[in-house]
Amino acid sequence: MELKSIFLTAIKALWINKTRSILTMLGVIIGVGSVVLLTSIGTGLQIYIEKQFADLGANTLFVVPGNPFGEGGGLGNQEAAFIESTKANLKRRHLDKVLRDNRDIISDGTVTGYSSGEAKYKEETKNVTLLGVTANYETVNNTKAGKGKWFSENDEERSKRIVMLGSEIATELFGQVDPVNKKIKIEGQNYRVAGVLEEKGSFGGPSYDNYIYLPLNTLFDDFNTELIDNFIFKVKDENKINEAINKIEQTLYSENLEEDEFSVFDQTQLLETINSILGVLTAGLGAIAAISLVVGGIGIMNIMLVSVSERTREIGLRKALGATPNVILIQFLFEAALLSLVGGMIGVGIAYAGSLFIQQWFPAQVTMGAVVLAFSVSTVVGLIFGAAPANRASKLSPIEALRYE
Amino acid sequence: MSLLQLKNVSKHYQIGDITIKALNKLSFKIEPGEFVAVMGQSGSGKSTFLQIASMLAEPTTGTITLRGKNVTHYDEKDRAHLRNKEIGFVFQQFNLLAKTSALDNVALPLVYAGELELARHKKAKEMLDRVGLGDRLENAPNQLSGGQQQRVAIARALINEPSILFADEPTGNLDSKSGTEIKNLFKELHQEGKTIIMVTHEKNIGKIAERLLIIEDGKITSDTKI
A284-339, pLDDT tens digit by residue? Predict the structure, then answer.
């Protein structure tokens, strides 16, 4: 007997019991759907972060206080790193020194410092993160003004009370009003809004669009701090990143900074660390979702077993009329595989639609790999869990089966 | 050479410690074109006789030859092929596939014979015409009367042109009018030259059959021409 006929027989058997077939598929639909959707979220996150780094350019180097990467290379002892940063041996003058000594290889550099405070415009009050930056932050960190103009080097040197607003905080404080050249109060002091930055976008958590940017000197003076958050350097030639790292380290050592008081790293290093974390996250999410796929498989086995007992007479009849044990085995295997395959397709469809929906808030990306994996896993699940019932059906004795009530 | 021959066939069932001898050294022959009626009380072994003769079950001892060929210990796969090609079944319970058209029910043995759909449907239609249901091709069993369902089952049994037609109380589930119609259909089939073995309870079966077997305690106790 040809496979096509067995296949059509299997389809017909599933079609005759539509409701039961759909309910059985539900487990696989949910399983495959959640695997694909959850991994799409992980992958989307990865792609988003890579894009953010790409925006910065491959020739960017960072210097941070302390040693956040720890011995093993991953994000190590956060607590120790925090203590290092508060000791604050890394000073602003070190940036100037690095730039001065390495003009041949480093084109530019900026420095940032953090603080926080309460910002107020008329009756609107917000707690905000304040990021003190030098005027060239605009070019070094690729952060352009959407409205108004970045403050100048001159403004920064003279500690002028000028701020740039992140796009989101601007809307929150000002609503429809154009903020440029308006005055806002931060911790009681008046600041002039010089401009609003282009939207950077984010997905939950702290967002650059929520920050208020002000000249670093102004931050140091008004908020009584000298803490450096990081230096960002632009290297002239992408291929000389490692040489630049060496030069920066030598300069800082020559300033009597110890090895564990600062770290220099390029974005590949940072990206690798983040990607390895996201990789684990994605795999973890996928694994949790895969459990529901297995539950779906058990659902198929359950229903197929019920179906075999319910159709005992039918199996007996088919055997009496000439179906060999193998033909019966293949028919039931086809039924199980079809249930999980169709369930898988619907699951992928739903996950794809879901990812399009989620994309309004969150970068989700359905990858071909995830789809192929989900399909193969669900089909294998169907075959494995369908094997026991199919085997039982093929072994039924035609006489017993025909006598079965 | 007989069409089908059973020689000293026994079938034993083990239930716990007790061995039940459903058939006890039974011997039987049938020639092409014969119409044999089989009678016996329940538990006499007539159903087992039917199962063994129709290749549904394997005997414990003894030999079965079909057209001179020893088929006693065929495996399940070869039995299935043999049943498909050589044997037609008509059951008391009709045993039609639910929610499946008369046409597809009749064509089912052809599926297992490996015939293509077009040929299957053509033959099935001819066979349904033959049993007088040419206008009911697309009806599912629940849209047919008992008598009509049994006609579909007979058409299905005949579709592969089997050597022997086995019928297990084919009128047992029918009212007397439909029962008579079905009996007449068997009579016609016999007149056309079909070989038939029918298990029945009907006393007046002699009107259509030409030989009567009586089975008691797993043995043929009477074998008469009628």
Answer: 888 888 888 888 888 888 888 888 888 899 999 999 999 999 999 999 999 998 98
pLDDT for the residue numbered A382: 85
pLDDT of residue B76: 92
The answer to whether the CB atoms of A321 and B108 lie below 8 A apart is yes
- Say how far apart CA A198 and CA A397 lie, in whole Å: 75
- Band the pLDDT of A57: cuts 50, 70, 90: confident
Can you tell me whether residue A293 is helix, strand or coil? Answer: helix
Burial of A204 (0-12, 13-18, 19+ CB in 10 A): exposed
Cβ-defined contact of B89 to A5 (cutoff 8 Å): no
Contacts of B84 in chain A (CB under 8 A): 321-322
> What is the model's pTM?
0.71
CB atoms closer than 10 angstroms to residue A136: 17
- Return the pLDDT at A259: 81
Residue B15 contacts A, CB cutoff 8 Å:
no
List the single best residue of B78, B95, B115, B166 to mutate versus A (max A Cβ within 10 A).
Answer: B95
A261: which DSSP letter?
G
Q: Can you give the pLDDT at residue B25? A: 93
Task: Show the low-confidence residues of chain B (pLDDT under 50).
Answer: none
How close A17 gets to chain B, by Cα (Å)?
A: 10
Give the domain extent around A381: 3-51+274-403
Q: Determine the Cα–Cα distance for residues A394 and A398; give it in Å rounded to an integer.
A: 10
Q: How is chain B split into domains, by residue range?
A: 29-60+72-225
- 3.30.450.40, 3.40.50.300, 3.40.309.10, 3.40.50.2000: CATH of B29-60+72-225: 3.40.50.300
Contact B108 A1 (CB under 8 A): no
Residues 6+ apart with CB under 8 A from A360: none
